[in-house]
Amino acid sequence: MGEIMNKLKFVFSAIVFSAGLVITTLAHAETIKIGVSFRMLSDVGYKHGELITDTVAKWNKEGTINGQKIDLTLYNDECKSEKGVANATKLAYQDKVHVIIGSSCSSVTLPMVPVSAKAKVPQIIPHSTNADITKKGSEYIFRVPVSSRFYKIVQGKFTAENQGTKIAYIYGPDAAGKDFALSLADYMRENYNVEPTYMVQSGEKETDFRSYLTKAKATNPEVLVISALLDETVRGLVQSYEVGIPKSVHRVTASIGSKVEIPINAGSAAKGVTFSAAFAASDTRPVAKKFVKMVKDKYGVVPGHDFSQMMDLLDILEIALKKVKFTGDLAADRNKVRDAIAATTDFRGLASGPINFCKSGTPECRDGNRTPVMIEYTKGGKNFKTKVAGTVTFNASAGL
User: Which pTM was predicted?
Assistant: First the structure.
């Protein structure tokens, strides 16, 4: 933590601490303003913040955005919706940013959408997957990660054909976890005519899932879906073995399974867990291998798709910002940034497939990444390992 904050002090001109505020920079003339609000609660979360600050510092050093410096304001919303809304409001009206990056948690991003839409400031999302985010019709929203509407199809097909259709679901109250579980159950119902063997929503901040797991075990499922926030997913996986659910029962999580804390904290309970994501550290493409090495060397972790999606977002944003001629008219400049991001076509970065946006505020235009990859943990713990089961690219309207 100390090393991280020292680096932030080095990169930026001032640090101000307050409720939910991580850093802010001294504004200066002729700047492009970027605001960030996302979840920084774990060491890895702070490393995502480092990735942003390091990248922007590189832009500023190289003068790559048409000679204009970047003024970065970064807030920690702690995955709390009220803080996300407050941060978005402050970024839009007080900090007067040209673009907002955020949030990580779908339950935070969802209520931020009306804020950025009303303020008419483009908002580009690094991690949130809930399909409803882009169904709101905002022209100012862009999603870099894969939407849950694509995840449910690839996960449903893979699960049914390789693991079974007798499925027990335990999901959290968070928007992404709930959406994944209910969408997967709907997919199974519609395509395989099967109902869940057991389905329950856990309580807010619940830590003991053993009563649910014991009831799920009694239904003799072939598959156990645990779809919740990070800590809850880890506990659910570990406790599933504590109540005696055999390893022959396939464990499935939502895309949150890609977070490196899952295999590290779940240990051996992570082995065999499958999930769909946008990137795998085991990807053999040269661009992926180079990125994995950089993150390991610089930040000391194996990157999951949260790291890769943030990097893709920053690369897309850099390309878009270079296209904009800023005039000083905030409303006009924000619309120019929006239009430049919307013009992104066939961006090929770390994602498993191309990322495309277009002009309309529809899900077809705002869900940019349509290529999820199926991943399985073959080993848990600090030195975890994964394997890729395959990828699928969907058309823009799939799952709507």
Answer: 0.80
